[in-house]
Design a protein that fits this description.
CATH class of the largest domain: Alpha Beta
Mean pLDDT: 83
CATH superfamily of the largest domain: Histidine kinase-like ATPase, C-terminal domain
Distance between the termini: 114 Å
Low-confidence stretches: 877-884, 927-943, 1065-1076
Strand content: 15-25%
Structural class: alpha+beta
Length: 1200
C-alpha cells in the first residue's frame, strides 16, 4: 500500500513539475511544501482538511489549524527533509482515520524541492483490521492458517478450496457480498452471485495457482453492497505440510479511488494539452543547468519546424531571435534567472523558412530546495497578426486624423493617396471617380513616375479588368508586365506608365461602380493579405471622407438656405392673420407670432415662458388647453378643436390645431400650433345648417305628400276596381265588356304610376327595403312577362325571349327585379312603332348575369344617353304626346338595380334607330336549389262560404267590395267606421275582416287591437285594406295584429289567394265555441316571418295564439297569457330558449304547461339539453306542421 501511494505521489510530483504545478481534483488529500515548509499547492480535499484557501499559498504549514490529531506534522516533515526518507503514521480526525505520509519532493534531476504530505483515508481499512483482530483472538488456529494472508492485505481476506468453494472470508468481504456467513462459507462463486464469466475466470486462476504454485494478480469490477467498484486482487497458494498446494488464499483491495485519481491525472494532462492547442501556444521547460528543454510540438512549429527537433537549447532559441531584438530578449531572460521573477517578452524571430514573425513569450522561474533557480517554464505564441493589426490601426488612426482636418474633396483624394503611398512605399497611388462613361483622376500621388491626373474613358480599363471591377472584386497582380493571360498590348501599356505590381480596389455603392483606388509599384511585388486589406480599408475610408466633405458642404449650403427660409418664414408668420405659436414640454410659450401678440396686447418678452394661466385666460379654457398640450406630447398625435375666446375684438370663434414636433430619435421635442378665426365660417355654417334643416323638412313634407297623394288616389281607385270586377263576374258582353277591359287596362296603368311614384321616392331617400333571397332570374323574367305581356301584345309588337337552359341565380328581391324588367319592357312597348321588334335576353358572363331589353323603336338622342336615368327626364319623341309618363320609371329602375349591386346602361345609335338597356347583376356563386319565386302566383283554392266583414269609411269602396265578395259566394257585412266595425265583429263573428286604416272614430290599427283582445278575435283573419303601402305602414299593421296588408286598389287575384288560406276557410260554425277544442298557444321566435306563418296555421286549426320575439317578452307573455302549450326557439335574444323554459317551469301557475323546442339544432346532445331544461318535445326546423298539430291534438284530448 505504501509503495502504491508513493508511486501516485511520485507521479503527481512529476506531473506538477512538467505541467506548471497544475493539480487536478482528487480525493487523496495532498499538500506540497517547499524546503521552508511553506505551502505551495494542495488538492481540494486537503484544503478542507487544513482550512486553507487559495490566497494562503506561500504561508508556513505551522500557521494552519488542522482537523487531524497530528501535532507531529511539522516534525515529520522536517525529518523527511533531513533524512531524505519517508515518514508514516496513522492519525485520526474525529471518526475517521488516515495514513499520513511525508516524503521528500524530488525534481526530475533528483533535486529536493520540498516535502509532499499525503493523507489516505483508511477508516474502512481500520474497521476491517479490527474485525480481523477480533476473529484472531477467537481462534488461534485460524490466526496461524491465515497469518500469511493477513500480512499481505488490509482489505478483503479469503481462502478457496481447490474445488472453488469458500473456506474462509473476512467480515468485510462477507458484508460486501451481502450474503451472511452461512450464505458464503462453502459456496462456489456462482452460488454467491458472481456472473458466469467472472466465476469461470476465478476458477481458471485457482487452477493456475495450484498448477504453477505462483501468485496471480488481477483487476476486476464487481457489484456488491457498495455498488459497482473496481478491485485489485492477488491469489497465492497455501502450501500444506506435505508441500502440496492445499488451498488458495487471497486479498482484494478496492482501488476505485486510485483509478479515479489516475483518470483525473490523465484528464488534467488532456485539458492542459487542449488549452494550449486552443490558444495556439507552445510550451517548453528549460533546464538551466544545461540549457536543454523539453517542449511541445507546437513550440517547434512556431519556429518553422514540422516535427520536434532532437534537441532544443536556450542558445538555439536566441539564434532565432532577429539581431535587433536579441540583446533585449537575453537581458530580460538573465534578469529573470538572477531574480527568480517572471519572464515576459515580445520579439521578432526568423523562422526556419526565413519568414520573420512576432512572438510573445512568458516564463516562470522555479527554484530548488536551496532556493536557486533551476528551471524555467515558458509558453510561447505567435502575435504577428496582432502586431500587424496594431500597426494597421495606428496607420488608419493617423490617416483619419489627417483627413478630418480637410474640407475640399479634391484635397482629401490627394492627401489620402499620398499618405497611403508613403506608408506602403508605392510609386503611384490613384483615387478616381466614375462620372458618366469616364473616370476622373483629380490628383494622384507619385514617387519616381509621371502623374496620370486627367479624364479617361471607363472602357480603357479593358473588358476583362472592367468586368472584375464592376463585380466589386479587388484586382491583385504581382507583375502586370509578365502576366501571360494579358495581351502583349496591355503588358506594354502597363510598362509605358511604369507599373508592374498593382492593387485595384473598386468602390461599388448601391450596385453602382462609383469610384476606386489603385496602388502601383514599378517593381514586382508579392502583395500580402495585410497589404490588400489595408488598401481596401483606405479606399473605403477615402470614399467616406470625400462623401463627408461633400455632405458638409451641402449641409452648409442647406444651413444658409434654411437661414434664408427662416427669415422668410419669420416674415410670413409676422404678417399672417392666423395665430402661430410653439410650446415647450411644460406647456409654456416659446414662440408667438405678431398677430397673436396683437390680440393679447402684449410684447414677445411678456408672452414667452408663460402658460395660458399666466396669460390670464379663463381658468376653464386655460386648463383645457394645457391638458390638450400634454395629450399631444403623450400621444404624439395632432389634435384639432374649436373654442370661443373674448378679447378686445369681442367674442369670436376660433379653430386651432396642436401638433407634436418629433425629433430624430422619435421623441417629442415641442408642440406647435396655429389658430384661425372661424367666426364668419361658423355663421355661414349655421345659415347653411338652417337651410339644410329647411330642405330636409321640405323633403319630409314631400314624402308625406306623396304618401298621402298615393293614399288619396288609391281610395277612389278601390271602388272602381271592385265595380269592374263585379261587372266581370256578372258576365258582361259586347260593348260593356270592351269598355270594362279598357277601363281595367287604364286602371292598371294608373296603379302602376302611383306605385312608381312612391318607389322612386323611397329609392332616392334610401327608404326602400329589399327582401332578398336566392332567386333564379328565369323565374323573375316569367313574372315580369306576366305583367308586361298584355301591353306588348296590344301594341302588336313581336317579342322574342331568350333564356338559358341552366338556372342563373342572384341574391335579390323577386318583386323588385321583376319590376325592373317589366318597366324596361313596357318602356320599349311604349316607344316602339306599332308592330315593332322587342327582344328580352338573359345570359351569364363569368360571375355576372346580363339582362338586355332591345327594341327597334324611336331611339335615344346621343345628348340624352347620359341623362336618361335622371328623375323626370323625358325624351322629346314623336310619340311622346301619345305615350304619356312621368319620366320616373328609368330612375326607379336604376336605383333598384344599384341596390342589388348591379349596373344598367342605355345604348342607342341615335333617333329612329332603336335602343337597348343592359342590366348586369352579380351571380350567386354557391349552388342554390329548391328556390321558390315569390313572383309566381299561388293557385287559388276554390272558394267556400266565408263570413266576411268589410270596414271602410269610403261608402262606395265598402259597398262595391262587399258586392264583389258576395258574388264570389261569401256572406258579407259592411261597416263605415272603426267602432262600428268592432261592434259588428263581436256580433257577426266573421272568419275574415277587411279593415281600412284611415277610418273615423277608431282607426284600423286600434280596431284590430280591440278585436285581437277578445277571445273570439284570436283566430279571426285580419286584413289591412288601405291606400298606405310603404314599409313602415306594413310594419305598423303587423304590430297591430293584422295577418295581411293589401294596398288599394286591390287585385282580385291577391284577395282570392288570401281568402283561400286555411285560416279563412275554417267554417264559421266550428268557431261558435272556440274554447271547446282550442288551446292557448305561446310562440316565441326571433324570426318574425316564421312566427307569423306558424301563428296563421295554428289559428287556422282553431287555437288561440300569442307571439313574442325574444326571451324576456316571451316570459312576460307566458305569465300574462298563461298558455297551455309554448313553442320556443332555442336561440333567442335577451334570454335563450333553454333559460326561458327553466324560468317558465319555476312558475307555479305554469306547472303543467307543455313545452316544445323548435330549433335548427338536432343532434342527440341538443335534444338532451332541451329535455334537461324542461322541454317535453324537441322538433328540428323546418318542422312538419302536421307533427305540431298532432302534439296539440294529444294535449287538447288530455285536457278536455
Amino acid at each position: 500500500m505504501n509503495d502504491e501511494s508513493k508511486s501516485s505521489v511520485d507521479e503527481l510530483a512529476r506531473s506538477n513539475s512538467d505541467l506548471q504545478n497544475l493539480m487536478v481534483a482528487t480525493d487523496i488529500a495532498t499538500v506540497f511544501v517547499d524546503r521552508e515548509l511553506r505551502i505551495q499547492r494542495l488538492t481540494t480535499s486537503a484544503k478542507a482538511l487544513f482550512n486553507v484557501i487559495s490566497t494562503d499559498l506561500g504561508r508556513p504549514l505551522s500557521d494552519f489549524s488542522c482537523q487531524l490529531e497530528y501535532p507531529e506534522i511539522v516534525a515529520d516533515a522536517e525529518r523527511s527533509l533531513t533524512h531524505l526518507q519517508s515518514e508514516q503514521r496513522e492519525v485520526r480526525a474525529g471518526e475517521r482515520w488516515y495514513i499520513a505520509r511525508t516524503l521528500p519532493y524530488r525534481t526530475a534531476d533528483d533535486q529536493i524541492a520540498g516535502v509532499v504530505l499525503t493523507f489516505l483515508d483508511i477508516t474502512q481499512q481500520k474497521a476491517s483490521e479490527e474485525k480481523i483482530l477480533r476473529i484472531a483472538a477467537d481462534s488461534e488456529r485460524q490466526r496461524r492458517v491465515y497469518e500469511t494472508v493477513l500480512t499481505n492485505t488490509p482489505d478483503f481476506v479469503y481462502v478457496f478450496s481447490l474445488d472453488y468453494r469458500v473456506l474462509y472470508a473476512n467480515e468485510a468481504l462477507i458484508k460486501m457480498w451481502g450474503r451472511g456467513h452461512d450464505g458464503a462459507i462453502g459456496k462456489t462463486f456462482l452460488e454467491i452471485g458472481y456472473e458466469p464469466w467472472h466465476a469461470e475466470m476465478h476458477e481458471r486462476e485457482i487452477d493456475q495457482v495450484r498448477a504453477t504454485r505462483q501468485p496471480i494478480r488481477g483487476e476486476v469490477p464487481f457489484t456488491g453492497t457498495h455498488g459497482k467498484r473496481q478491485y485489485d486482487y492477488i491469489f497465492v497458494p497455501v502450501i500444506g505440510a506435505d508441500g502440496e498446494v492445499e488451498a488458495v488464499a487471497g486479498t482484494t483491495r478496492d482501488v476505485t479511488e486510485r483509478k479515479e485519481t489516475e483518470r483525473q491525472l490523465r484528464e488534467g494532462q488532456e485539458q492542459l494539452d487542449f488549452a494550449l492547442a486552443a490558444a495556439d501556444l507552445g510550451y517548453w521547460s528549460l533546464n538551466l543547468a544545461d540549457h536543454t528543454a523539453r517542449r511541445t510540438l507546437r513550440h517547434d512549429q512556431l519556429f518553422g519546424y514540422d516535427a520536434l527537433l532532437p534537441e532544443w537549447t536556450y542558445e538555439m532559441f536566441l539564434d532565432h531571435v532577429v539581431p535587433e531584438d536579441r540583446a533585449m530578449v537575453d537581458a530580460a531572460f538573465q534578469k529573470s534567472v538572477a531574480t527568480g521573477s517572471a519572464w515576459a517578452v515580445e520579439c521578432r524571430i526568423q523562422r526556419a523558412d526565413g519568414a520573420v514573425r512576432h512572438i510573445w513569450k512568458k516564463g516562470l522561474a522555479l527554484r530548488n530546495a536551496q532556493g536557486q533557480v533551476e528551471r524555467m517554464l515558458s509558453i510561447v505564441g505567435d502575435i504577428t497578426d496582432r502586431r500587424q493589426a496594431e500597426e494597421r490601426q495606428a496607420f488608419l488612426g493617423r490617416f483619419a486624423d489627417t483627413l478630418r482636418r480637410l474640407s475640399d474633396p479634391v484635397e482629401v483624394q490627394a492627401v489620402a493617396s499620398r499618405v497611403l503611398g508613403e506608408y506602403l512605399g508605392a510609386n503611384r497611388v490613384v483615387y478616381f471617380e466614375i462620372r458618366g462613361d469616364d473616370y476622373v483622376i483629380e490628383r494622384d500621388y507619385t514617387a519616381g513616375v509621371r502623374p496620370l491626373a486627367g479624364r479617361y474613358p471607363v472602357a480603357a480599363f479593358g473588358q476583362d479588368l472592367l468586368a472584375v471591377l464592376l463585380d466589386g472584386r479587388t484586382v491583385i497582380e504581382a507583375d502586370a508586365t509578365t502576366e501571360p493571360y494579358r495581351p502583349a498590348s496591355e503588358r506594354a501599356a502597363f510598362a509605358n506608365i511604369q507599373v508592374r505590381g498593382h492593387v485595384d480596389v473598386p468602390l461599388v455603392k448601391g450596385g453602382r461602380f462609383v469610384a476606386g483606388m489603385t496602388v502601383q509599384v514599378s517593381d514586382r511585388r508579392d502583395w500580402t493579405p495585410q497589404d490588400v486589406g489595408l488598401i481596401e480599408e483606405t479606399a473605403e475610408r477615402t470614399w467616406a471622407a470625400v462623401e463627408r466633405v461633400r455632405a458638409e458642404r451641402e449641409v452648409a449650403r442647406l444651413a444658409a438656405e434654411a437661414d434664408r427660409e427662416r427669415r422668410l418664414f419669420a416674415a410670413v408668420l409676422s404678417n399672417t392673420p392666423d395665430f402661430i405659436y410653439t410650446f415647450d414640454l411644460d406647456g409654456r410659450f416659446v414662440y408667438v407670432n405678431t398677430a397673436l401678440l396683437a390680440l393679447w396686447g402684449k410684447t414677445l418678452e411678456q408672452a414667452v415662458g408663460r402658460n395660458f394661466f399666466e396669460l390670464d385666460y379663463p381658468p376653464a379654457l386655460a386648463d383645457r388647453l394645457q391638458r390638450q398640450i400634454q395629450e399631444v406630447i403623450d400621444t404624439k398625435q395632432p389634435l384639432r378643436d374649436e373654442t370661443p375666446y373674448t378679447s378686445g375684438m369681442g367674442e369670436r370663434m376660433y379653430e386651432y390645431i396642436l401638433a407634436p414636433v418629433v425629433g430624430a430619435g422619435g421623441v417629442v421635442e415641442a408642440v406647435a400650433g396655429s389658430t384661425r378665426d372661424i367666426t364668419a365660417r361658423k355663421q355661414a355654417e349655421a345659415e347653411r345648417e338652417g337651410l339644410v334643416k329647411q330642405l330636409r323638412e321640405q323633403d319630409r313634407k314631400k314624402d308625406e305628400f306623396l304618401a298621402t297623394l298615393a293614399h288619396e288616389l288609391r281610395n277612389p281607385l278601390a271602388p272602381i276596381r271592385n265595380g269592374l270586377q263585379v261587372i266581370r263576374l256578372a258576365g258582361a258582353t259586347g260593348m260593356v265588356e270592351q269598355a270594362r277591359t279598357m277601363m281595367e287596362r287604364q286602371l292598371a296603368q294608373m296603379v302602376r304610376l302611383v306605385d312608381d311614384l312612391l318607389d322612386v321616392s323611397r329609392v332616392t331617400t334610401g327608404k326602400l327595403t329589399l327582401r332578398t333571397a336566392p332567386v333564379d332570374l328565369r323565374e323573375v323574367i316569367d313574372a315580369a312577362l306576366e305583367t308586361s305581356r298584355q301591353m306588348v301584345e296590344q301594341a302588336g309588337h313581336n317579342l322574342a325571349v331568350i333564356v338559358p337552359a341552366e338556372p342563373v341565380f342572384v341574391e335579390g328581391d323577386v318583386t323588385r327585379l321583376a319590376q325592373v324588367i317589366s318597366n324596361l319592357l313596357t318602356n320599349s312597348a311604349k316607344y316602339t312603332h306599332q308592330g315593332g321588334q322587342i327582344s328580352l335576353a338573359l345570359k351569364r358572363e363569368d360571375d355576372t348575369a346580363v339582362i338586355s331589353v332591345k327594341d327597334d323603336g324611336v331611339g335615344i338622342p346621343p345628348a340624352l344617353l347620359d341623362k336618361v336615368f335622371e328623375m323626370f327626364t323625358q325624351v322629346d319623341r314623336t310619340l311622346e304626346k301619345t305615350t304619356g309618363g312621368l319620366g320616373i320609371g328609368l330612375a326607379l329602375v336604376k336605383g333598384v338595380v344599384e341596390m342589388h349591386g348591379g349596373t344598367i346602361v342605355a345604348k342607342s345609335e341615335g333617333e329612329g334607330r332603336g335602343s337597348e338597356f343592359v342590366v348586369r347583376l352579380p351571380v350567386l356563386l354557391s349552388a342554390v336549389q329548391n328556390v321558390t319565386s315569390e313572383a309566381a302566383d299561388e293557385p287559388v283554392v276554390a272558394s267556400s262560404h266565408r263570413r266576411i266583414l268589410v270596414a271602410d269609411d269610403n261608402l262606395d269602396s265598402a259597398a262595391s267590395l262587399g258586392k264583389l265578395l258576395e258574388l264570389l259566394g261569401n256572406y258579407v257585412q259592411t261597416a263605415n267606421d272603426g267602432l262600428q266595425a268592432v261592434d259588428l265583429a263581436e256580433s257577426f263573428r266573421p272568419d275574415v275582416i277587411l279593415l281600412d286604416i284611415g277610418m273615423p272614430k277608431l282607426n284600423g290599427y286600434e280596431a284590430a287591437r280591440r278585436i285581437r283582445a277578445q277571445a273570439w278575435g284570436q283566430a279571426t283573419m285580419l286584413v289591412a285594406l288601405t291606400g298606405w303601402g310603404q314599409e313602415e305602414d306594413r310594419k305598423k299593421s303587423a304590430d297591430a295584429g293584422f295577418d295581411h296588408h293589401l294596398v288599394k286598389p286591390v287585385e282580385l287575384a291577391a284577395l282570392e289567394k288570401i281568402l283561400a288560406a286555411p285560416a279563412a276557410l275554417t267554417p264559421s260554425t266550428d268557431r261558435s265555441n272556440p274554447a271547446a277544442a282550442s288551446l292557448r298557444v305561446l310562440v316565441v321566435d326571433d324570426m318574425r316571418d316564421a312566427t307569423h306563418i306558424l301563428r296563421t296555421l295554428l289559428k287556422a286549426a282553431g287555437h288561440v295564439v300569442r307571439t313574442a320575439f325574444d326571451g324576456p317578452n316571451g316570459l312576460a307573455a307566458a305569465l300574462e297569457f298563461r298558455p297551455e302549450v309554448a313553442i320556443l326557439d332555442i336561440s333567442l335574444p335577451g334570454m335563450s330558449g333553454l333559460e326561458l323554459a327553466k324560468r317558465i317551469r319555476e312558475q307555479a301557475t305554469l306547472h303543467d304547461i307543455v313545452l316544445i323546442a323548435m330549433t335548427g339544432y338536432g343532434d342527440e346532445a341538443d335534444r338532451q339539453r332541451s329535455f334537461d331544461a324542461g322541454f317535453n318535445h324537441h322538433l328540428v326546423k323546418p318542422a312538419d306542421i302536421s307533427v305540431v298539430l298532432k302534439i296539440l291534438a294529444t294535449v287538447s284530448a288530455r285536457l278536455r
